[in-house]
Queue: 2 jobs
Job 1
Amino acid sequence: MAYDIALLRGDGIGPEIVDSAVAVLRAVGKKYGLDFNFTNYLIGGAAIDETGVPLPEETVKGCLGAQCVLLGAVGGPKWDGLPGDRRPEKALLGIRSALGLYTNLRPARLFPALSDECPLRRDIVDRGFDLMIVRELTGGIYFGDRGYRDGRYGREAFDTESYSAYEVERIARAAFSIAGGRRKKVTSVDKANVLETSRLWRATMEKVSEEYPDVELGHMFVDNAAMQLVRDPGQFDVIVTSNMFGDILSDEASQISGSIGLLPSASLGEGSRGMYEPIHGSAPDIAGQGIADPLAAILSAAMMLRISLGLEREADDIERAVDQAISDGFRTPDIARAGGESVTTREMTQAVIDRI
Ligand code: IPM
Ligand code: MG
């Protein structure tokens, strides 16, 4: 049986790192006798250049027909001047929404071999951390009404945040059930001292938590959460939060784990189909140089095997190979020690493959 995987390589370093993930998947396939069918579809700037739109109909169809989607990154300076609804990023929001992927899982843990790269104080690093950000992905200010209007000081721009109880309930359930398989602690992050959406969010979290009596629920304001993430990240197990707060906090969480080049993510809906992507962007400044860190994409592929395809052993294998490659000293420039040697994207990918 072959697994059907749609590839959205995208822009910037996207193609390079997706190729790395594919090479690793093929290596795992060879070891365990699994067959993968990979099909490329256009997205983002690459799609704009070729078809005039960031998310062609064919791409949506292809992803809907696949078992999972592996995405690189979208966007770059070349398309920055385009109006909002024609930008590459719009395609990312569009595909998340078209596939109904409202749950975004962004794990962040300290790689012991990289603890020197962690910008936190030694005693905080020594305590370690392993947290999961559960970000709501298809609602909130990312998808609310926006535009221009006449305001008190003339023409003004606006974006609106809205959440229904239904949207909060389903992301709450996702967070509680994930916490149930971990350390059974959910921290819901909001701004309920100011925002009405956050007050609904908080009340709904409370309500849903009654269905999960063995999971502890706490609340934290987002400003405090941003501070606590660098003060004492070990206190968190599962963080559940809105689309925009999750976007911001997950970049912060990635940096304390060593590099933004390391963090994978999974976007899920009701079925088993998921979209898997690094949390980093297209990094146009280093695109095409062959030095991008492929590990976030490779770890995203591992999440795909585990979550959407139920291939636990194969996913473990990839994650172990990544840990091993890092401990054996392989470093792309983003995680290289000051003055230390670094390897290319290809060499890092090969190092992982050699350890599978
Ligand atoms: C992310 C990215 C995207 C987001 C951008 C590129 C639209 O920052 O996946 O975190 O904000 O969701
Ligand atoms: Mg982001």
Job 2
Amino acid sequence: MLKPRSTATRELVNLDGLWRFAVDTAVGEHPWTGPLDTPLEAAVPASYNDLFTDSAIRDHVGRVWYQRSVRVPRGWAGERVLLRLDAATHEGKVYVDDTLVAEHVGGYTPFEADITEHVAAGQEFRLTIGVSNELTNTTVPPGTITVTADGRRQQKYHHDFYNYAGLARSVWLCSVPNAHIEDITVVTGLDSTTGTVEYEVATSAPVPVRVRVLDALGTEVAAAEGASGALRIDDVTPWRPGAAYLYDLVAEIVDGGEVRDTYAQPFGVRTVEVRGTQFLINGEPFYFTGFGKHEDTPVRGKGHDNAYLVHDFQLMEWAGANSFRTTHYPYAEEVLDFADRHGIVVIDETAAVGINLAVEGGLTGRPHKPTYSKDTLNDDTRAAHAQAIRELVARDKNHPSVVMWCVANEPSTHEEGAREYFEPLVELTRKLDPTRPVCSTASLLTTHQNDRIADLFDVVCLNRYYGWYIATGDLATAEALMESELHAWAGKLGKPILMTEYGADTQPGLHSVWDAPWSEEYQVAYLEANHRAFDRCEAVVGEHVWNFADFQTSPGIHRVDGNKKGVFTRDRRPKSAAHALRARWSCLNGRKPANNA
Ligand code: BDP
């Protein structure tokens, strides 16, 4: 699905702003059939949870309603009119006046509806969107809903970050011509100094298509006729980490000598490959430095915000980070566009966090039901997971910044059924995109002895908390455990190892001369101990600290106002660890640190 863009043949109206808002217990049975009777207004884009002071809204389990009126521009007569939601978390139903025009499950990928037949140019319509925050055993991420003795519904889930919901990304009204471009796929390669570009343009009707490649200055460097084909760019400027370069593939529908539709798809020419224990970008070994993150800020929750986008990238660059993982769901498309333009490498993750009934709120180990069974996570869960993969790849396939797909975070890998669950999903991912490596991250419960699925993936991705959840306060033991586990995995699979999570909760301003967990000094020492272990293992190809910033979590006794493993606070102030990482990472430039053991 193409990102909405204004072009010579397409127009856009952004519908962000204040919408009427109500939870479904406060309005009638069919609230879309008339104006929402509510005193509340909610900001779009923003999660609704932290906007209001009423805990009944914050804790509501079920549907909420957003409504506004929209005028179709009068110049759109004869055009097709699309409504596009960048996301509705976790499920959305869209009504134009009294008519249901779209339904979508999955909270972090876009969907659209062609509403041409329901609206008229120059006229207003009532747009109502119902959004549900419910997580069940057949959603990704999964969850369960329980009912208390006094009848209140409660949502439980297997991840620690707070279940923010609502319209956290933009909503658009778009015009497209009748015969229009529906999708573009670009796959690039490097043949010495020449860039190869395979392209495919999908159209709504069988119409003649031509494409042109423009360089960053807008000069045409290649062209072809036809909806699919291959192009060559001589003296190509590749897209490199830290040195982004983007071309545009301009696709046009040309009929009777007239351009009926045009769309410019940015792309970068680069290759990605896993060879032996190396991760290669453009044929050169790449060492990842960076973070697992969250879309999480005060008041907005998971609401996309361009100020935080710019600032977060500034802080990552300042710290010497060259990459991040979109933990634990696909991020707003603006984030990936920004990464494309600024040469930051991305591991793109689905919303499949918590495919693991042994994990509750990020903590592990209690007795639990089997993860994979008819009554727990089952074929329907896997179907939802497959759909999440399809939608992620469809949305993000053209981003040069995206170098690997992460199909799940910390699934259960040792239980019966794990392989049966994951094998088809990995096959599907590879079929959808044969060009990018595929991974899944392994929790502490996955060991090199009990794991049943790591061989399906290209890179061994480890989330490890030696010195925090294990060997708390004992960094010598932590370092030894970390190192011996790394060598065990390297010996078993001979694949690159990426440290996709390691971190320690830290209360900003707490200081100690001892190895005192929660102090800023401990977070620094924790990272240093882990780094020494990583540097002694040849197969380690990178390190992503958990987490970039402190973030909000579900209520519980293990977190005080959120997860405090941030290297920055929730309002983006550096803890001591940020300076320590900057000292280590700034001089690496994508190269593996020396083993100074
Ligand atoms: C890991 C999870 C991550 C949690 C983290 C933690 O992948 O989402 O936030 O633990 O406990 O297991 O801090």
